[in-house]
Amino acid sequence: MAFIRTMLGDIAPEKLGFTYSHEHIVCRPQHWVDRNADDLLLDDPAKSQQEVALFRDAGGRSLVDATAVDYGRDPAAVREISRATGVQIVGTAGFNKGFLWDARMPGKTCTFEQWIESTSVDDLARFVVDEVEHGMNGTDVRGGQVKFGTGYNSISPLEIKTIRAVCRAHLETGAPIHSHTEAGTMALEQMQYLREEGIDMRNVSFGHMDRNPDPWMHRKLAETGAYLCFDGIAKVKYNPESVRIRCILDLVRAGHQKQILVSGDTARKSYYRSYTYAVGLPYIISTWVPRLIEEANEAGIDGQKLVEDIFINNPRECFTFKKG
């Protein structure tokens, strides 16, 4: 039976509804705690709950919380936010990226780097499988996707190790795979290890594609069947919205409308309305979606159908558990 795993339990895929595919709700990354980087700490669950309620009131139904264990995940707090707001939230098992691993692991004396280095790939895979099948951070909140990540224009040996572990956890559980690409780099290079582990790319989503607005690279990824997540909406400091929309419409023209995901990756206080009066989670629905519809229609593309695919149909397919 096909299902999507949320923090409140498994649901039928058709119940997912309008979905942001990469967000952060509550996170206290030890790497940033050690550096007193307050903007990178979403450490007030009450404010996060207010923000998720704003998303719901704007018309949102589901969120994917892409916060992994090395990014200060708090699944118990996020589950309570889901319960209080009625918004369905998919949690994330696995890892983020190597430069975070100098920090101490929760409840342990070693760092993430020391633990990953001293643990076999198969035992790391078992850790991820347990997060999907039993629960994360000592809770019974189960992960709904498995994640790995790599650095900027680089893939370290320990990152390769976590890629392999996450692939093996996917093959055992059927949980969808999500890839962190630092500034949109190294996605094509990551595929070498995915292929070596026997992964069907139709079960993988690559994040931060709008940080590297390269239409050729996007097409090459899409030709494998993978999903491309444009999750920097509203971050004009990286690229204007015109660049993101142009990349999305280029993929549509190339026949890849069914492989596009969109979100905001709101991982800073300064991105949240509830913390700082920023545009926050409602922005995509209230402001960006109407613009996408208008620009798509002007380009001869059915904007309303495009939005339906990006936010409803594609997430429904992407986040469904599939084995093999």
TrEMBL record:
<feature type="binding site">
    <location>
        <position position="180"/>
    </location>
    <ligand>
        <name>Zn(2+) 2</name>
    </ligand>
</feature>
<feature type="binding site" description="via carbamate group">
    <location>
        <position position="147"/>
    </location>
    <ligand>
        <name>Zn(2+) 2</name>
    </ligand>
</feature>
<feature type="binding site" description="via carbamate group">
    <location>
        <position position="147"/>
    </location>
    <ligand>
        <name>Zn(2+) 1</name>
    </ligand>
</feature>
<dbReference type="InterPro" id="IPR001559">
    <property type="entry name" value="Phosphotriesterase"/>
</dbReference>
<dbReference type="Pfam" id="PF02126">
    <property type="entry name" value="PTE"/>
</dbReference>
<feature type="binding site">
    <location>
        <position position="22"/>
    </location>
    <ligand>
        <name>Zn(2+) 1</name>
    </ligand>
</feature>
<keyword id="KW-0479">Metal-binding</keyword>
<feature type="modified residue" description="N6-carboxylysine">
    <location>
        <position position="147"/>
    </location>
</feature>
<protein>
    <submittedName>
        <fullName>Phosphotriesterase</fullName>
    </submittedName>
</protein>
<comment type="similarity">
    <text>Belongs to the metallo-dependent hydrolases superfamily. Phosphotriesterase family.</text>
</comment>
<feature type="binding site">
    <location>
        <position position="24"/>
    </location>
    <ligand>
        <name>Zn(2+) 1</name>
    </ligand>
</feature>
<dbReference type="GO" id="GO:0008270">
    <property type="term" value="F:zinc ion binding"/>
</dbReference>
<feature type="binding site">
    <location>
        <position position="208"/>
    </location>
    <ligand>
        <name>Zn(2+) 2</name>
    </ligand>
</feature>
<keyword id="KW-0378">Hydrolase</keyword>
<dbReference type="InterPro" id="IPR032466">
    <property type="entry name" value="Metal_Hydrolase"/>
</dbReference>
<dbReference type="GO" id="GO:0016787">
    <property type="term" value="F:hydrolase activity"/>
</dbReference>
<feature type="binding site">
    <location>
        <position position="265"/>
    </location>
    <ligand>
        <name>Zn(2+) 1</name>
    </ligand>
</feature>
